[in-house]
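Quick question about two entries, pasted in order.
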Amino acid sequence: MSDPVVRPIRSATSDLTPEHTADAALTQRFVASLAQDQRYAHDMFAEVYQRWSALVYSVARHAMRDDHEASEVTQRVFISAWQSRDGFNPAAGSLPGWLLGITRRRIADRWRERSRPTSNTTDEVPETAEGTEDPRVSQIIDQVVLADELARLGHPPGDIMRLAFYDDLTHVEIAERLSLPIGTVKSHIRRSLTRLRTRLEVTRDEQ
């Protein structure tokens, strides 16, 4: 089964959670900071790190399966992001999508580095050509981003979507499990799917 294709944040809509609105405002401030002096830009970048470092670390931790390696990758991602910050184009995709694009490359770099001293062993390092995206990284990013987005839906929408996605329950079973009217469950699922598709999803081909 092919991995889902997800799309970047494009337009402002109603039906946004406060967290999504805050993220959009943070992205606007980040873009504005690029034209300011370096100290101001650095302070603004610290906010970006505070907001999305956990997401980057989660992806790295799932990929590397080691806390120290995940921390190393996360550090490299944000160093790369700081050094290439002028290249961020909000019209091309979302800020978290840009960061995850860098994360893919830093994970691939670390996998190649880790494989060199153990090239004669059977370590689980993907043998993809440089510049080729490993499908495992894409799958990990999809899973982590989905989990992050579901958590940000709050209650009960996030609970409903987790039961639908992970437990594969029907609308009726979810309504019974959460003691909610069936119409409420359907309404939350419809609105939540729209949010997941159009607001904070990330394209594979960003960066």
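Here is the second entry:
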Amino acid sequence: MHYSKKYNFIASILFISVIICTSFISPTHTTIAATNSSPVYEQRKTHNQDGIGKYYMGREIAKVMGHTGAAWLERPSRETEEKPSKIVDALNLKSTDVVADIGAGTGYLSFRIAPKVPQGKVLAVDIQPEMLDIINFFKQELNVTNVEPILATLTNPNLPNTSIDLALMVDAYHEFAYPQEVMQAIVKALKPGGRVVLVEYRGENPFIMIKGLHKMTQKQVKKEMQAVGLTWRETKNLLPQQHLMIFEKQS
């Protein structure tokens, strides 16, 4: 069976299984305990119900989708709705690249990137052990050897210094409880000239039917990436509803 067809078949089984397992569970978000106000973050008692009440550079941080949302990540309609194959193509990967998929979830993008880096690898980073269990399941079923699950913390992606060529974050960055600390660690993990690619729903467009805190404007993303020393290179508007923004670590 062709690789992509086999993945889609297994993902469909997982999708059905998760739907069954979670049908008796009310949809929830993982709640992250907020910290006291600091020079970097501000805590507000009155805030959006979809956020954690913690603000970074004027933006409220959104609640995290828990592992019970795995079925949503693996939904069969995702390619049609979001065009993730275009994300993979836009990365312009070399066969030897080491890619960190930050907030990898079920590994949906990780396993689509893996064939592009046969002499490299994909580091599938997530803070939820349950998500890494799903990634390990896919690894075994697909017999993929160059995807490595990594358990992160809220403040640290646990990546060695100067070890990665590219860090990819797809609809994940806006949920980071400690965005500055995580991004500083990612910058350290990048090789000189390494890239950061963020995919986020367009916050400028009120007609995109995604909750406000789960969208970001280009202006906000650029401001937050500049704060950790990354340089904006380009924004590719090739996706139906999301920005694909590329930043670079200076050599």
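Reply: The domain at 73-248 is CATH 3.40.50.150 (Rossmann fold). The chain has one domain: 73-248. Hope that helps.
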